[in-house]
Specification:
It is a single chain. The protein has helices at about 1-30, 40-75, 95-140, 145-160, 180-195, 200-210, 220-225, 240-245. By secondary structure, the chain is mainly α. It has two domains: about 10-65, no CATH class; about 115-240, no CATH class. The chain is rod-shaped. The N and C termini lie far apart (about 115 Å). This is Transmembrane protein. It comes from Bacteroides caccae.
Length: about 240
């Protein structure tokens, strides 16, 4: 079948080349202002030129195709999908190592900050509980009622947390002659000392919380005589409260 087709295709190709040669000779004669009679001589020249050019290009095409086929079969030419993949792990650069170390430090730093914040909160809460226990023990020992002691605890907790004086409308601590102004001022100073509160704030606290004792006193005189270390008092000055609880 292929043998019968090849002569036909070759004949068609030769006929096309002859037609092309005739056309080229006519065009050439026209450009050179020659008569059409000259085309009888020029046409065979174009025909032979095209014929041999065709055979030359065919031979070169076969040669190139054969060479490429041999390279493909030998593996010198690879298909795009056959491109070898480099599975060798990429060595980390100094920048990669630095970024990993930075990420590790960042995570450790955040964790340390969180742990530190929790520790600070726990320490503050522990300190507050010790101060409140000191308050309870102090006023229970000198004879105040449970309700009165509870109110004082509320005022103390508000003072140390907000650094402000809590004024309760129904706050009522009954005055007792055995409990002196000096003892109450010493108590206020003891609390202020543990939290480094200013003396004026401590004076406002004691005057507001124990109003019946200081109804006729001024803030200036209370601040001036807030701390008394001499003599025996129901509530003495104590700078070591936290160590006792």
């Amino acid at each position: 079948m292929n043998q019968s087709i090849n002569p036909i295709l070759s004949g068609i190709a030769n006929w096309l080349l002859a037609m092309l040669a005739i056309c080229l000779s006519f065009e050439f004669c026209h450009l050179c202002s020659w008569g059409l009679g000259a085309s009888i001589v020029i046409t065979p020249v174009f025909a032979y030129t095209l014929y041999y050019a065709r055979h030359l290009t065919t031979a070169m095409g076969k040669l190139v195709a054969t060479h490429l086929a041999q390279q493909f079969l030998s593996g010198d030419i690879l298909c795009p999908n056959d491109t070898p993949v480099n599975n060798t792990p990429k060595s980390p650069t100094n920048n990669d190592i630095a970024m990993k170390r930075l990420d590790l430090f960042h995570s450790q730093f955040e964790k340390s900050q969180e742990e530190l914040a929790k520790e600070v909160i726990q320490q503050k809460e522990l300190k507050l509980q010790k101060i409140l226990q000191y308050t309870t023990d102090t006023f229970c020992r000198i004879g105040l009622t449970e309700h009165e002691t509870f109110q004082i605890r509320e005022c103390v907790e508000y003072l140390v947390k907000n650094e402000k004086v809590l004024s309760l409308p129904d706050l009522k601590i009954e005055r007792r002659p055995e409990i002196t102004q000096i003892s109450l001022k010493n108590f206020a100073w003891n609390i202020a000392y543990q939290y480094k509160l200013p003396g004026q704030l401590a004076a406002q606290f004691v005057m507001t919380t124990f109003h019946e004792w200081f109804a006729d006193s001024t803030l200036y005189t209370v601040v001036k005589n807030l701390k008394t270390t001499s003599g025996n008092h129901a509530i003495p000055i104590d700078t070591h409260i936290l160590k006792k609880y």
